[in-house]
């Protein structure tokens, strides 16, 4: 080791706050902290940008359509915060397309979506079997299925959003250090964070490490009931060009359940890859985040192939491109947004369960509030660690 490195290892840089993990949640948290004039360091184990976690890829769905009121409430402000970032940066991050929600008319899941949207006065259009194909060409609506469109929904340009919020964070004086893997966290009134390149000290630390959350939490004596799964992100070729194109006003869609599956199937119009429609199964197979591609299970692709052949006749029922993503699932599929149970100056954002990207701006705001000891803007009881009790282990 050179003398310079030894000096670097021994100098402990001081920050108000260190955020570990520069995916969408960590980046928005760091940005919110910098907005509050906190000296903030954002650490990332890989070189940015990268495709190893859960925040990569060009698009995500943004929607108010949810089974639970608390998500629909949070999305109200979240749309405003996305628009604010667009104005601040001059970058377009969102395209309104609408979201077509389909599912067995009398099923609990479909009714929950419909009731939540109506109760919260979200603009929707309910379609009937008679007028469905007139509004939504090249889609077969199953017998007994209901259909509605959440008019406020659309597509977020994910890669672009991540790059934009990180650039705004740096503009506010924030520091990003990528290719710095955290090797240790020593809790205390001042938290010591060791990385592959040095040691840092901070009054508070936020852990937003996606699939790696429990590896970092082990240093703090906590393990959460998180399951990491690999998702096959599939792109399907249009047989007839532009059948499902965003320019032809084809919407995003979500099937609550169907003949092939009990989990959601969701899709986005052809946009990022011309002539290819992104359609995914909202579940995957357990994987080690450091060896993601050893997981080669294709049962989700089999389900999707049967669905595409049955319901989307203008697509080739064999995926043309398959990419990978990871979900970090909690048992109830709700997020973890909370302070560490024994170290209140360590804040945790985890378990986004494959539906967290759209909430990035509001999660950043909430994690910032928790870090600064402010009263959170929303009721966080659905997201507290104590709901797991029996499943939360001490790692010590």
Q: Mind explaining what this structure looks like?
A:
The N terminus is likely disordered. It is globular, with a radius of gyration of 22 Å. It has 9 helices and 20 strands. It is 26% helix and 27% strand. Helix 2 packs parallel to helix 6 and helix 2 crosses helix 9.
Which runs of at least 5 residues are low in confidence (pLDDT < 50)?
Answer: 1-7
Structural class by helix and strand composition: alpha+beta
Radius of gyration (Å): 22 Å
Mean of residue pLDDT values = 94
Question: Topology of this protein?
Answer:
Layout: H1 3-10, E1 12-20, H2 24-35, E2 40-43, E3 59-62, H3 69-89, E4 94-96, E5 99-104, H4 108-119, E6 124-127, H5 132-135, E7 145-150, E8 154-157, H6 158-171, E9 175-177, E10 182-186, E11 191-195, E12 199-207, H7 213-217, E13 227-237, E14 252-255, E15 265-268, E16 276-281, E17 285-286, H8 299-311, E18 321-329, E19 336-339, E20 346-350, H9 360-371
Parallel strand pairs: 1-2, 1-12, 2-9, 5-14, 12-20
Antiparallel strand pairs: 3-8, 4-8, 5-7, 6-7, 10-11, 11-12, 13-16, 13-17, 13-18, 14-15, 15-16, 19-20
Helix pairs in contact: 2-6, 2-9
């Amino acid at each position: 080791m050179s003398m310079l490195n030894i000096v670097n290892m021994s100098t402990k840089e001081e920050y108000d706050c260190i955020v570990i993990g520069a995916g969408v949640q960590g980046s928005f948290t760091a940005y919110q902290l910098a907005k509050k004039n906190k000296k903030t360091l954002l650490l990332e184990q890989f070189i940015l940008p990268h495709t190893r976690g859960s925040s990569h890829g060009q698009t995500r769905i943004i929607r108010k359509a949810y089974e639970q009121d608390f998500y629909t409430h949070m999305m109200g402000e979240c749309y405003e915060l996305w628009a604010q970032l667009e104005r601040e940066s001059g970058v377009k991050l969102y395209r309104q397309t609408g979201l077509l929600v389909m599912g067995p008319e009398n099923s609990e899941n479909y009714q929950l979506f419909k009731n939540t949207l109506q109760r919260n006065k979200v603009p929707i259009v309910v379609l009937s079997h008679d007028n469905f194909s007139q509004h939504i060409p090249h889609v077969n609506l199953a017998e007994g299925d209901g259909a509605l469109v959440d008019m406020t929904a659309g597509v977020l340009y994910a890669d672009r959003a991540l790059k934009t919020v990180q650039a705004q964070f740096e503009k506010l004086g924030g520091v990003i250090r990528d290719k710095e893997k955290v090797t240790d966290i020593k809790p205390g009134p001042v938290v010591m964070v060791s990385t592959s390149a040095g040691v840092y000290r901070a009054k508070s630390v936020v852990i937003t490490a996606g699939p790696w959350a429990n590896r970092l939490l082990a240093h703090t004596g906590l393990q959460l009931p998180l399951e990491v799964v690999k998702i096959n992100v599939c792109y399907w070729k249009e047989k007839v060009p532009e059948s499902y194109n965003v320019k032809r006003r084809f919407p995003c869609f979500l099937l609550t359940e169907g003949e092939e599956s009990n989990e959601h199937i969701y899709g986005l119009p052809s946009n990022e890859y011309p002539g290819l429609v992104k359609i995914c199964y909202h579940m995957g197979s357990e994987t080690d985040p450091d060896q993601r591609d050893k997981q080669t299970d294709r049962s989700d692709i089999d389900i999707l192939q049967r669905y595409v052949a049955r319901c989307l006749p203008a697509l080739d029922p064999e995926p043309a491109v398959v990419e990978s993503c990871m979900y970090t699932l909690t048992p109830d599929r709700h997020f973890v947004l909370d302070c560490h149970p024994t170290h209140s100056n360590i804040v945790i954002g985890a378990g986004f369960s494959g539906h967290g990207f759209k909430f990035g701006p509001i999660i950043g705001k909430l994690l910032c509030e928790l870090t600064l000891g402010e009263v959170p803007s929303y009721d966080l009881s659905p997201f507290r660690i104590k709901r797991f009790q029996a499943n939360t282990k001490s790692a010590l």
